[in-house]
Structure formats: C-alpha cells, structure tokens
Amino acid sequence: MADRDGNPDPYRGYRFRIELDGVERGAFQECSGLDFSQDPIEYREGSDPLYPRKLPGLTKYSNITLKWGITQDEELWDWRDQALKGAIVRKNGSIILVDDEGTDKTRWNFEAGWPATWTGPTFNATANEVAVETLEIAHELLKKA
Q1: What is the per-residue pLDDT for 3?
Q2: Residues 78, 59: Cα–Cα separation, whole Å
Q3: Were both Cys, which of 36, 49, 125, 139 would link to 110 (CB 3.0–4.6 Å)?
Q4: Largest CA-CA distance found in the chain, in angstroms, rounded
C-alpha cells in the first residue's frame, strides 16, 4: 500500500514468524534483539596529528529475545534444558517480517544460536494476563536476507 503521495507504507511490527533450523515455531508475542555493534579501536602513532584514528573493532551481536504465552509445547524448554545439562545444541534460525496479506517481506537470519537464558512467567491472582515465558538466544552472526 502507499500513502496519497505515492510513498510505500512501512510494514507493521506485529506481523512476524520465527523459524529454528527451517521449522516454523509457534506464535510469539514479542521478538527483540535484532542488533549488533562494532566498538571502535583508537589508534595513534607518534607522528600522527593530535587525535587518534578510529579502526573497526570486534562485532558484537545482542541476544535475540523471544516472548510467548505458555502452552503444552515444550520444545523450547527442552532445548534450554539440554543446554543446562551441558549439551549445547546450536541452531540456525530466522525472524521473518510479514505484511498484512501474510507475505514474507524481510528476513533476518542468525547462526549458531543456543538458548542462553530462560525466564518464567510472573503470576498474579488479581491480574487478567496470559502467562508468558521468555527465552534469550545467544548467536554468532546476524544477517539480513
């Protein structure tokens, strides 16, 4: 779709899918952590001007955080449980942005991911909310496909 000036409308942030090792996982409430940074390294030689040069340093990828309502599906819990027992199983995955018609529009692929942190739900007898789990996936590469 486009606005009246012919500019394309931006995609909505509430339509997305998650794949792990090519298998689509259930519905997720939230996905964050699609970012990386590269720290500068300051370098100066004695004959340089009175300011340092800045060289690119290591690239650091943030953990991808997934949140979802608890169901009977225990596959992500089992993956984290394996890691807790020392059997790290690395998986490649994708976060896919979908348009209003359900067509894939943008894909971010991560590599060598493993479940680093699991957070259980908060229970409150006076609230009217879904019980939500959180999983952080550490990974070694993020690229847009």
Answers
A1: 67
A2: 30
A3: 139
A4: 69
